[in-house]
Amino acid sequence: MFTSVLPKPSSPNTPLDLFAAINELKRELNAVILAHYYQEPDIQDVADYIGDSLGLSRQAASTNAEVIVFAGVHFMAETAKILNPDKLVLLPDLNAGCSLADTCPPAQFAAFKAQHPDHIVVSYINCSAEIKAMSDIICTSSNAVKLIEQIPQDQPIIFAPDKNLGRYVMQQTGRDLVLWQGSCMVHETFSEKKLVQLKMAHPGADIIAHPECEEPVLHHANFIGSTTALLSYVKDSDLTQFIVVTEPGIIHQMEKQVPGKAFIPAPSTGNCACNECPHMRLNTLEKLYWAMQTRQPEITMPEEIRVAALKPIEAMLLMSA
Ligand code: 13P
Ligand code: SF4
Asked: Domain total for the chain?
């Protein structure tokens, strides 16, 4: 579909150089490319910054670029737009959503919130702008425990939308949270049985997992953390083998930054590539080029939602500074 608009090679013998074309557009537009670790290797390689949700939010909050090209999923690009109302924020494929964010429809969440009038709302960043607008504090997987610990003990809290991260935070902090029962289709797909079999085949490997995984899987983990924390762990560890229980896109960065160590992707329950996030994978290098070339698809939202959603994001950035 996109081949007709790709830059023409300068001669029939010259291979198409999408990397060069994207870098040229980057200069022309004064653009920055922010990418999540779950993006395909080519996108990671052309990005100016690769990070977890917190790192990407911080980059979006501080960039001087006029255009933000967000290679991630919709809620991530939306967060960048909330922080930068005057900038053009592009998402290569507007259908790159998030199954976890989709488990929390605004109308149902408003009703849930109304049932707990004395609670404050801490929402995981994997939610829509509408849910953020109903929240008091946003958190990510890398700062959720730290933020909850800063809230007075006698303050009741709703935690949304991820029940798995919520349960993990409850265990880490000893706090009783009212959990919205959302989850991520990718992180719920890992098979505990296959994980144990993999560990038996690689007894010297540490199991490292994202907190969006279910409890029986997390139970086997030597380390639990955000994508950036998982990357730091494999860099700092003396071990040379790791079983990685999150979306396998991050393995590209692990192999680049920590050469010589082995990273084994944890298998899904079925015989499928269900451990790959189908939403993240909608973005491709061709679509990224096309988005920059045409300046669309652009992220937009009603201004009253943006203003309301900004407050809890700013609270997060302040509390996790
Ligand atoms: P991180 O913030 O840890 O990168 O997680 C984002 C995400 O969507 C995990 O599924
Ligand atoms: Fe959403 Fe799960 Fe994909 Fe992360 S891995 S973006 S939580 S669907």
From this structure: 3
